[in-house]
Amino acid sequence: MEIGMIGLGAMGQAMARNLVRAGHRVKAWNRSGGSIDGVTMVASPEEAFQGDAVLTMLSDDDVIRSVLLDSAVLSRARPGVVHIVMATISVSFARELVAQHAANGVAYISAPVLGRPDVAAAGELNVLAAGAPQAMEKVRPLFDAISKRVWDMGAEPPTANAAKVACNMMIAMAIEAMAEAVVLTESNGLPRAQFFDLILNTLFGSRSYQVYSANIAGNHYDPGFKASLGLKDLRLASEAAADTGRTLPMLAAVHDRMAETVAAGMGSRDWSAMADLTIGTR
Length: 282
Prior knowledge:
Elements: E1 2-6, H1 10-21, E2 25-29, E3 39-41, H2 45-48, E4 53-56, H3 61-69, E5 82-85, H4 91-104, E6 107-110, E7 113-114, H5 117-121, E8 125-131, H6 133-138, H7 140-146, E9 147-152, H8 157-186, H9 192-200, H10 207-218, H11 227-244, H12 249-266, H13 274-279
Parallel strand pairs: 1-2, 1-4, 2-3, 4-5, 5-6, 8-9
Antiparallel strand pairs: 6-8, 7-8
């Protein structure tokens, strides 16, 4: 397939390399330039929309709006192209994107991913995809190149975005839960590494607990997913919750704690640094 890419951050670069490795022809546009072996860099987002599909991996709603909507790129897209937004965006903006793509006759899929840059590099992302079945089938080879599994979230793209912000909300809650558990156990003489050995081999053996318990046990928070981005995703979850008219008290608490983490100057550290604030080891 001829695939356009918009956005070459750590995740986008990993995806591009795996697409090239799978034999696809990749053209990419990046706001800050750069290059990747085997990828043809183009001068504008519009040029990325002239193939079979285009994958967008930009940081947030505002950037996507600026790059694609404000410049009316969709109106100049190649007929038949499928646009896949793989970034974590708000549910409300996903609804707007559905309407904008329909108005311009461009097929649209929301496909946010679960996985950090190392998982993306290994081609083992979990893709949460939602869109029209015909469009989904067309881009299946693209998903096969970058993921270990595609989770079909249905025909309505915003459903996938709701699932993604819910997943990130739960990861943040897990980080805070582990931090608060350490406060209880460590203050009573149990080393955190020993406590984590217990929970990982009994109650909580998932990847999120494995990855972030290691960060907390070693008290090292080198950025894999920055706290500033974690705060952004918790804000998206809070907005989605507000749209339901329901109150989610755990979400409110963990959002406030992540905001405190960023305010304390840890926005560029891994979002599990929130635990450092709770445990009080800084």
